[in-house]
Design a protein that fits this description.
Blueprint lengths: L7 H19 L8 E5 L2 E4 H17 L4 E4 L13 E9 L1 H6 L5 E8 L2 E9 L4 E6 L4 E3 L2 E2 L12 E3 L11 E3 L5 H9 L5 E9 H13 L3 E3 L14 E8 L4 H15 L3
Parallel strand pairs: 3-4, 10-11
Antiparallel strand pairs: 1-2, 4-5, 5-6, 6-7, 7-8, 8-9, 12-14, 13-14
Length: about 260
């Protein structure tokens, strides 16, 4: 649970206000915001920066002593010297945001001593608000979430548009561009598995990680090792988010691929 001195209602309100601003700029999918690429293949737009600014101001007022780690803010070493850190992706799923699709979300996590204590995903285009606190469960729009009970990897539902040939025993389901929303689908028993074998950033997954864990899912890196947050280099190699009954089998399948990519 976030520090006892923090007001959960104020935090949720700040995230909701920022998400409403993003929704207004999205304009029912007819967004006209200025867009460009930070690096080839990584789009960003005015909405990313505006939401980032709103959240930094509002969350900073709620917890002035907390550090800040966001996709749209230059990182500094300050966050490494404090116990609590906001980990933020102002718009996770910018491609869907710019294409007028609903698969984007505002992602906010509060990390304390390396562990996520609070996670919020606001997906206003989908009318979905996900909240989880360490030890207090996870909800979507106020309803308690529980990950699925699947025990066989074959037939597992994966948010994907295509699958590798050696994974054709899995079943594709809807894939929002936001990886946080794909992970949240596992928490809601709308998917069984989300997996990647590439380097990713903490802000992509922090909020969704606690939502999934509080719903009973298992979340690790691609090798099956625990995730730690607010590290000097805020990245992790790969992701494995799964219903608890298939996590071991998924790790057995994914880890050799990850080791090959890492060079053994």
């Amino acid at each position: 649970m976030p520090g006892a001195d923090l007001d959960l209602r104020a935090i949720v309100g700040a995230v909701s206000d920022a998400a409403d601003h993003a929704l207004a700029l999205w304009a029912g999918g007819e967004t006209r915001v200025r867009q460009w690429e930070k690096v080839p293949g990584h789009p960003v737009c005015d909405a990313d920066l505006e939401v980032d600014g709103l959240l930094r101001a509002s969350l900073g007022a709620i917890d002035p002593g907390a550090g800040w780690l966001s996709e749209e803010t230059a990182d500094t070493v300050h966050r490494l010297g404090v116990s609590r850190v906001w980990v933020v992706d102002p718009i996770d799923g910018t491609r869907d945001y710019l294409r007028g699709r609903r698969g984007w979300a505002v992602s906010v996590a509060l990390v304390e001593d390396g562990a996520v204590r609070l996670g919020i995903l606001a997906a206003p285009a989908r009318n979905e608000y996900w909240i989880a606190q360490a030890g207090h469960g996870a909800t979507r729009n106020g309803r308690t979430l529980r990950a699925g009970s699947r025990t066989l990897l074959t037939g597992a539902r994966v948010p994907a548009e295509q699958l590798p040939r050696n994974d054709n025993d899995l079943v594709m389901v809807e894939k929002p561009n936001s990886i946080a929303l794909r992970m949240a689908m596992v928490a809601a028993d709308e998917a069984d598995l989300v997996a990647t074998v590439r380097w990713g950033n903490e802000w992509d997954i922090a909020a969704a990680a606690i939502i999934c864990q509080e719903a009973g899912a298992m979340v690790t890196d691609a090798l099956g090792d625990p995730l730690l947050f607010n590290r000097p280099r805020p990245t992790a190699f790969g992701l494995l988010c799964a219903a608890p009954g298939i996590h071991a089998a998924a790790t057995e399948r994914l880890a050799p691929r990850a080791r090959e990519i890492l060079g053994g």
